[in-house]
Queue: 3 jobs
Job 1
Amino acid sequence: MKYDLTVIGSGPGGYVAAIRASQLGFKTALIEKYPTLGGTCLNVGCIPSKALLDSSEHYHNALHNFKAHGIDITEPKVNMGQMIARKADVVKQNVDGIAFLMKKNKVDVYTGVGSFVNKNTIKVTKADGTEETLETAKTIIATGSKPASLPGIEVDKKRIITSTEALELKEVPKHLILIGGGVIGLELGSVYSRLGAKVSCVEYADSIIPTMDRALGKELQRVLKKQGMEFFTSHKVSGAIAKGKEVTVTATDAKGKEVTFTGDYCLVAVGRRAYTEGLGLENIGLKADERGRIAVNDHLETSVEGVFAIGDVVRGAMLAHKAEEEGVLVAEYMAGQKPHIDYKLIPGVVYTWPEVASVGYTEEELKTDGRKYKVGSFPVRALGRARAAGDIDGFFKVLADAETDEILGVHIIGPRAADIIAEGVIAMEFRASAEDIARASHAHPTFTEGMKEACLAAIDNRPLHM
């Protein structure tokens, strides 16, 4: 078979690239090594974790909040089997949807491991060992990433686990030791904390979610501690050993003292590593770096003409929506268009409750750059909608240029932050000022009013409800 474009990997970047390429008239093939489409995100990442987050939040509310709302029930119990079964059904519906989209857009799907014979020939090795060869004018590498680990830690996938195994546990841990205070660890840690586990988070940096605005990490840690999680920041993990049903984690604290943590499960969530093994990159003269990533230019083309790479296998944040934007960019660039991505305006989200969302510059970055800025902040508890819902933790924070008032960063922790951040993204895409947002009518009562109030605070410290 001959194709205009072959995409290797069917995660959000890969399948979106295939759809857009087909829309633009390219005869397109999609290669996926696993029997289901959707990659990490749909199968063992974004979608299943959000399913468990929602289920655990329902349980937490039934246990702790229903009574205040005038809802009396007998004490709820966790049915882990049903919770995991529901999660699996959510995943199936989503991956089936991607299969439908491939048929709808006339994308040919091949199941097997794709590898380069040369830059215009791709070999597909199927599970039974048989092979098939595709001829292609251009190729997009979209093979994603896999969980990373630390020296001295052997993941046995039973007691010392990654995010993949954490989505399939048959019981609620008694004590989950979480290595890593980033997005993935905190989301899954909060799932099991809500379900009744003791969760101890051990983080190397001096704050959790260290890549986001520090005020967000400080507030999230305060709220999660209130929910029962405990935190040990500035701790360097040196090892983890599982014996029977017990796991012991060793670490060194900020003063150089060795400390140990003992639990029944250890979740290693120290980031992800680009997955580029087995692609046959050496056959076309490409080499991945020490983190498995492939170097690309501004159009996401590698040093080999006609071979592109997107998503987790290239520079930048490992985010599904970032990969999607890059997939669209490559397809449109191939069609002769002039697409563009402003990587500073790709939002980051932590789906704990309250949610955390951020876009643009952090306050720490602006200070480092020596840029003069204004800060507008507004507490969630001052919103009428928050009081009505009983969700009062968190704040809205807007950073604006001191002279032009252009919005430079938006940082939110609170209910529905993951959805509200889109307002900040759109505002910054159109280079709006804080005054532009402050003068726009926001429906009352809503959580989005916090965005308006924070912008009023950024203009000249004149919020209306604080």
Job 2
Amino acid sequence: MYDSVWYNSLTKPFLQPPAWIFTPVWIILYGVILTSIIIYAITPSKKDKTNGYVYLIIHMIFNLLWSPIFFLLHKINIALFVILIMCITLILMIYKFFSISKLAGTILLPYLCWIIFAFYLNIQFLRLN
């Protein structure tokens, strides 16, 4: 999926996790995201849920864009902008989900931590390379 020669040539940030960790972490996180979406969707509410879905869609579009921009196009600076948008939309999504269901919002907090960590790594990749 990505240019491993280019990636392996990069200077890695100090806190860069080993490559094997990413697949299990993302599997767990996508399960958490799906669970949160289901809880949000099925929770009865008189509040409008539209904004939560809009934030989710925008967030997931940028989530899907990050890897090709970073790994295929080698645009670390654009990837940084993309992950910044991911952070912002995820915070908005958590806020909206929490307003409908405290559980739906709360279980997204580990995902937010991971995205903030990924943002840090992206900054470091840009700085070091």
Job 3
Amino acid sequence: MEDQLLETLGLTPIDLVRILFALMIAILFLQSGIDKLVNYQGEKNFYKEHFKDSILAGSVGLLMPVITLFELAAGVITAIGLVVFLVNGSTTLACLGTLLATLAIIQLFLGQRVAKDYAGAAVLVPYFFLTVGGVYLFAMS
């Protein structure tokens, strides 16, 4: 039955998995980036407190826009890439978006490790696997 549904939609099982990965990544990074924009000062204050005893303490003002832009770009490009994939089957933009998402997770992971928040760093590992899986799925076209 699933095969008939996918066939009716013109999708392969790998296409369906790509769509689901792209949806998850786009939602995750759009929400996170938008939240940082809407509550920028609150987020900045949180990060200043979080990194106050680390070598990143004086860099929060510079790093906040960088991570915010990475998250927004990852979410937007993955979402656009999903639409492009659905329209013409091209995986290039979705691959780029998921790659940016992976780089954003690596930035966050580095920050958590530098702040010695090992539990916070560990929470990011499943997100890393999600984004790397997305890169792999879209790169293997």
